[in-house]
Each structure stands twice: as C-alpha cells, then as structure tokens.
Design a protein that fits this description.
- By secondary structure, the chain is of the alpha/beta class.
- A seven-stranded parallel sheet has the order 3-2-1-4-5-6-7, with helices on both faces.
- β2, α2 and β3 form a beta-alpha-beta unit.
- The longest helix is centred in the middle third of the chain and has 29 residues.
- It is globular and about 50 Å long.
- The mean pLDDT is 96.
- Bound molecules: NADP nicotinamide-adenine-dinucleotide phosphate.
- NADP nicotinamide-adenine-dinucleotide phosphate (NAP) binds next to α1 and α6.
Length: 252
C-alpha cells in the first residue's frame, strides 16, 4: 500500500488531500499542530479502514521540522504533500517582524527541509513524488501580503528547479498553485475578503483533484481551474508595469 505524508492535514486543502489520497488507497502520515484535530482526523479516516499515523508538530520550528524529516528519512513515504502554510494579510512594516519570519519559516524553510529529506530517501530507491502547495500569489506582486507572495514565488521556482534536477531519477516534483479557495486560511489571517467576487473562489475538493492528477502526471506546475490558468498565463505575459498597476488598483 503506498504511503503519503501530508502537512497541514487537519483543515482546508490538507484535510482534502488526506481524504482523496485515502480514497485512492494510500496509508497516511498526518502533520499539524493541534493534537485534538489530528486525532479526530485519524479516527475519521481509520473508520474507513485507512492506516493513519499522526505527528503533532509546529513546522515553523527547527524541532518540528526535524521530527518530520526523520520520519520521511525512514524511506517509506511515496508522496510528500508540503501543504501547511500561512498568509499575513498585513501591510509590510505594520505587522510585527515575527509574523513575517513565521511565514518564511513555515512557507519556505519547512518546505525546503522536508523536500531535502524526501529527495534523499526517494532518489535512493529511485521513486517518489513531492507535491508543494504554492499559490497564484507567487505569480503576481501582492501589496498587503508581500512576504506571502514572495514565499510562494520561492515555492514555485524551487519546485520547478528541483523537477529539472530530478528529471529521469524516478522522483517528480509539482508545485500546485491554487487561487482563492474556501478553507480556514483567510479566517486564521483575520483577512477581510469581501472585495473578492464569488466567481473567483474555488472549492478545495476541485483544487485537490486537479492538483493530484497533475502530480501523478509528473507536471512541474499545476494551476487548478481554467479561470486561474488564464489569469496566471496573462500575468506572465503582461508588461510588468501594467501588472503592477492592475495589482495596485485591485488591492489583492
Ligand atoms: N485557501 C486559499 O485561498 C489558498 C490559496 C492559495 C494557496 N493556499 C495554500 O494552501 C495551503 C493550505 O492552506 P489552507 O487554505 O488549506 O489553510 P487552512 O485551512 O488554514 O489549513 C492550514 C493547515 O495547516 C496547519 N498548520 C498551520 N500552521 C502550521 C504550523 N506552523 N505547523 C504545522 N501545521 C500548521 C493547520 O493546522 P494547525 O493549526 O492545527 O497546525 C491546518 O491543518 C497553504 O500553503 C496556503 O498558502 C491557500
């Protein structure tokens, strides 16, 4: 039975990754901070006959990353889903520096550390997949969420560059880049999203379905939904001064 390790597995996209992978016959290792929610997720999935381990750690810390990296180093993880992430949704300079640093620790440093452990274990046996959850925010300069935007640009480029390095190794790497998706993400950030039109919101189940299909197809970059594919393609083709003007006017 294949095994997947999913970070941020108790809510939103991570919980959906866990559910869809379980339905595809995967055993699971679930990672998040809140023990009660991990145990509830474990019980719900185990009720369906799925083998589930839980690792309650804070991935914004060295110790938390080390626990998960050691588990990956055991060599039996077929798919790593680096999903846990946070957004600041505060003007840079207004929010405390510690909030910006926590974002980099979780969105960048933990992704790099767990991928490092996975690349060693997976290349040693010549197979495996790494799915890094990035964002369309990594394609556009988002004032008001500056460190988040930059952190996701890092995740997308890191994934693509690693995919180039690992071509032919039997290990694939995919950056899944969702647009606005209904989860707990914006509520946690206490972000007012009332200006975002309803048509811009995606369902977590659709994002995960398309992200997993692209991952299993070995694509380096996945942008779920036709509308966000069109928007990210346009964003990459527009002259940067025009893109900056649009982003400034929209306030995204
Ligand atoms: N929702 C969107 O619109 C959207 C759009 C584009 C990209 N994304 C990306 O999608 C990914 C998942 O986001 P989501 O929307 O599903 O968020 P969510 O609903 O807020 O879920 C976040 C999950 O991550 C865990 N988590 C948070 N901080 C953690 C930490 N320091 N260490 C370990 N686990 C932690 C949470 O559990 P605990 O609190 O118990 O730790 C929870 O399981 C993120 O990388 C995000 O940037 C989201």
């Amino acid at each position: 039975m294949p095994r997947a390790l999913v970070t941020g597995a108790t809510a939103g996209l991570g919980a959906e990754f866990a559910r869809q992978l379980a339905a595809q016959g995967y055993s699971l290792v679930l990672v998040a901070r809140t023990v009660d929610r991990l145990v509830a997720a474990q019980a719900a999935l185990a009720g369906d006959g799925v083998e589930v381990e839980v690792l309650p750690v804070d991935l914004a810390t060295d110790d938390g990353c080390a626990v998960v990296a050691t588990r990956i180093g055991a060599g039996d993880i077929d798919l790593l889903v680096n999903n846990a992430g946070m957004g600041s949704y505060r003007a840079f300079g207004e929010a405390e520096l510690s909030r910006e640093e926590a974002q980099l620790d979780l969105n960048v440093r933990s992704v790099m550390r767990l991928a490092h452990a996975a690349v060693r274990a997976m290349t040693a046996r010549g197979s495996g997949r790494i799915l890094n959850v990035s964002s369309v925010a990594g394609f556009v300069p988002r004032g008001g969420n500056v460190t988040y935007s930059a952190s996701k640009a890092w995740v997308t480029m890191f994934s693509e560059a690693l995919a180039v390095q690992l071509a032919g190794s039997g290990v694939t790497v995919t950056a899944v880049c969702p647009g606005f998706t209904h989860t707990e993400f914006h509520e946690r950030a206490e972000a007012d999203m009332s200006h975002v039109p309803a048509r811009m919101w995606l369902d977590a189940a659709d994002v995960v379905r398309e992200g997993l299909a692209d991952t299993f197809a070995g694509k380096p970059i996945s942008v779920p939904s036709r509308r966000y594919k069109a928007l990210t393609t346009a964003a990459q083709k527009l002259p940067r001064p025009l893109l900056r003007r649009i982003m400034g006017a929209r306030g995204y």
